[in-house]
Design goal:
About 5% of the residues have low confidence. The protein has one domain: Mog1/PsbP, alpha/beta/alpha sandwich (Protein Transport Mog1p, Chain A), CATH 3.40.1000.10. The chain has three helices and eleven strands; from the N terminus they run H-E-E-E-E-E-H-E-E-E-E-E-H-E. By secondary structure, the chain is an alpha+beta fold. The strands form two sheets. Strands 3, 4, 5, 6, 7, 8, 9 and 10 form an eight-stranded antiparallel β-sheet that branches. A three-stranded antiparallel β-sheet has the order 1-2-11.
């Protein structure tokens, strides 16, 4: 066989391997979904299913099959005024009224990616005891507010404590994957 004859089978073989690797990464990464009429996109990991939890208030929500972890995204009312820091502080205050809050993490600023620019964001974590019926569950909440110039959005992820690294990676990965258009 000449060098040229060996080249084409190798290219076909490498192409097949490339397609296999891409499909494996797609399975690991999950599915990219759009919400808010295409203004927001994020990656939803495998094993997470669309959730109707808080359906009237949210743009979209997902949960694990065992319901021990969930995420939702909603648009916030910007007319209440105040900074994103104020809005996040008010959100934490509401959690303190509803749940038995054990710990509030440091407020950290960051950015959410957009097609042409990055949008300002603020993030914190809250750990609390949550009563569901007669049972109490220890929960960690991942809270983020971001501003796209035309809208404010609130992202909440939650998982039971003790937190497994896989569940935390899923929630944080969803948060980091957000891409927002104005």
């Amino acid at each position: 066989m000449t060098g040229e004859q060996r080249f084409f089978p190798r290219v076909a073989y490498l192409g097949a391997i490339f397609l296999l690797v891409c499909s494996v990464f797609q399975d690991v990464l999950g599915e990219e979904v759009e919400v808010a009429e295409g203004r927001i996109s994020l990656n939803v990991p495998l094993g997470w299913e669309k959730s109707d939890l808080n359906q009237g208030e949210v743009l979209a929500g997902w949960a694990t099959a065992d319901s021990r972890s969930s995420v939702f995204l909603r648009e916030m009312n910007a007319s209440s005024g105040g900074s994103m820091d104020d809005l996040l502080r008010n959100t934490v205050n509401n959690y303190e009224k509803i749940f038995d809050v054990k710990d509030v993490g440091e407020f950290r600023t960051g950015q959410v990616n957009g097609p042409e620019k990055k949008w300002p964001a603020i993030f914190s974590m809250v750990e609390a005891d949550v009563d569901k019926g007669e049972k109490t569950h220890e929960m960690r909440f991942y809270l983020m507010i971001f501003d796209t110039g035309s809208s404010l959005y609130f992202f909440q992820g939650s998982t039971t404590i003790p937190v497994s690294s896989g569940r935390e990676n899923d929630v944080m990965g969803m948060m980091r994957s957000i891409v927002a258009k104005s």
